[in-house]
Structure formats: structure tokens, C-alpha cells
Amino acid sequence: MLKKLSFDENAPWKQRFRAPTILWTQLAKAAPARGLAASNKSGVIQLYAWHVPTGELQQLTHQADGKIFGVLSPDGRYVYSREARRKMSRRACRPTRRLAWLSAAPETCSRSPRRPRRASTSTSWT
Hints:
Blueprint: H1 12-17, E1 22-27, E2 34-39, E3 46-51, E4 56-59, E5 71-72, E6 78-82, E7 96-100, E8 107-109
Antiparallel strand pairs: 1-2, 2-3, 3-4, 5-6, 6-7, 7-8
């Protein structure tokens, strides 16, 4: 006989869909014992410092709407992420936040690193 389906918050079938997962990871090139991971371990996707030898994850971001994108510096000391866009013009740059790898105290960088300019593909035939 089938059991009656439960719709309460802790129903077993709901727990299966809320299982913590790791979406992506990144290792520091110069310090492979340090890594960065994005996971929904806290219920919302956040960035985590990943201590590779032990597999331990420490939450770095604590944003209500989550944080999925970030970049680990090559030496593994800092994590860079963008601020959420709030009523800014389309062309306005979002500030970049810098987090220490094992600290949740963010710093706002004054300027984002600039991308190299693309080579011009147009030619002049005059």
C-alpha cells in the first residue's frame, strides 16, 4: 500500500532536491592547496574557500540572493567578485570586491582590472 505523500518542509522527497552540491571549483595556480568553490551548502549558492588537502569548505559570501561568480587570484590569497547591479546605468561599472581567502571582510577595489584592447580589424585602402 502506498503512503500518503507529505508536503511539509522536511518531506524526504524535498530533501533529495535540496541536497548540497558543488557547482564549480577553481585551484590557485601558484598555491594548489587553495581553491575556490561555489556551492548551495547554505541553502543559497555562495562562494567558499576550499582547503584542498582536507576538502574543508569555509563560506566567504553571505548574500541573501546568493553569489555564483568569483575568481581566485593566482597566488590564492584573494577572491574577486562583482557587486550586484542596483539601479545603475547600463554602462556603469559594477565595483569589484576583494575578499581574503579565509576572511569574509570584503574590500571594494577602486578600479577593475582593464581588459586588453582588441586589435583593429578594419583596414584603410586609401
